[in-house]
Amino acid sequence: MSLLTELSEHLPGRAHGPGTTEYDAGRTVFAGVGEPAAVVRPHTADEVAAAVAHAAADGLSIAVRSGGHGQLPVDDGLVIDLAEFDTIEVGDDGLATLGPAAHWGDVAAALAPRGLGISSGDTRQVGVGGLLLGGGIGWLVRTYGLTIDALREVELVTAAGEVLTVNSESHPELFWALRGGGGNFGVVTRFTVQASPVDGLVGGSIHFDRSEVPTVLRSWREVMRAGGDEFNSTIMLMPPMGPEMPGGLQAGIALRGSEGELHELLAPLLALPSVTKVDLAPIAYGDLLEDAPPGRPPFQFVGGNGFAPELTDELLEAVAAAYARDVPTMALLRALGGAFSRVDADATAIAHRGAEALVVVNGVLPADAEPELVAAVKAGSDAALASTTGSYGGFEANRSDEITASMYPPATLERLRRVKAEVDPGNSFRRNHNIRPA
């Protein structure tokens, strides 16, 4: 009996195969289109549990689709499409109940009338589930920490088909693992997250040309260090991509404070002769989020990311040199510290809490670039990241064991593997940055 037939008998109206609208929706993600054996679109946690138990008993891998942004296409096994789990409810205490398929732009809109927000990622269309389980390095990371730092409870379906309420008192070790361990431990059907005040924001962007990249990076670093917890910033270096896209630097900025305080803080950056455009004003948190591209771009990123314990002159010069190489290269530096660093390294599965910034360096190559060129560009990107440690899985499309090992210090990874062995010994949830059971 096929998986589709079996699931159709036990979950009538919920299991879908080729030729159906639900199947096509479930198999389509940002990165492309897959060919799973079946797609289940459950409406309740118990239906999720029934689907998971059937697939796990047959030894099939299980992919979970929430927003569809971070998932890779699936060509076998079962896709659990959580499209019906898109709840956004906000209590008087600021506790938000979120379904994994809700999108962060909608969450921001729902919280805005209360002057509240949840620091998540950069884009509106990304789903709650994938980003939250992976960590969540958002716009207000220095002010409120990672998204997982605001997580208070989850409802989780395990590989055995159990529905668990998981928090700091109920299954605390599993709760630790879920905060940064990704989708390795089951299917989350409900998140409870503490929202925070996001009123009184000023911010926007400052644009620079390519004439003095090292100077801009050093000045941005000093401003960031002087800014304190309420100041959040990312600087992006974009490559020239033709006459209409000359490339350049853009600093994105958000401060809980006044316009006067912001301009005083940014004075060293605003005085640089390479400034080409300034767009700073009072801003709503939701307006900091951008629209995600509709699908995978027609090129590949070759490089990686790492946590910088310190933004030394040498590291900034290495990033500037990578940006200046013949291969089009994009780089990003996201300021950390503040609330992010006040969380103990062993409090969640994201252990690189002492970092001053997250640094990303990627060469931009055609999708069909020769392997030799890819390898050479990768080596150059890696050289620029040589003084960083670890990596952040949310920015890593590569799902290899090597990447998973880079995401977690050895002791953290072993602890995650022990939790995995308890709740998913058959490794049914392996369509991710996979943590193999101990």
Structure overview:
With 438 residues, the protein is of the alpha+beta class. The chain folds into three domains: 3-81, Uridine Diphospho-n-acetylenolpyruvylglucosamine Reductase, domain 2; 88-197 and 413-423, 2-Layer Sandwich (Uridine Diphospho-n-acetylenolpyruvylglucosamine Reductase, domain 3), CATH 3.30.465.10; 201-398, Vanillyl-alcohol Oxidase, Chain A, domain 3, CATH 3.40.462. 30% of the residues lie in helices and 24% in strands. A seven-stranded antiparallel sheet has the order 17-14-16-15-19-20-18. The protein has a five-stranded antiparallel sheet with strand order 7-8-12-10-11. It has a four-stranded mixed sheet with strand order 1-4-6-5, with helices on both faces. A hairpin with a 4-residue loop joins strand 7 (88-90) and strand 8. Helix 1 (3-10) packs antiparallel against helix 3, helix 8 (213-227) packs antiparallel against helix 9 (259-270) and helix 8 (213-227) packs across helix 11. The mean pLDDT is 95.
Summarize the structure.
With 438 residues, the chain is an alpha+beta fold. The chain has 14 helices and 20 strands.
- What share of residues are in beta strands? 15-25%
Structural class: alpha+beta
User: If you compute it from the alpha carbons, what radius of gyration comes out, rounded to the nearest whole angstrom?
Assistant: 22 Å
Helix content: 25-40%
In CATH terms, what is the architecture of the largest domain? Answer: 3-Layer(aba) Sandwich
Overall mean pLDDT stands at 95
Overall 3D form: globular
End-to-end CA span: 32 Å
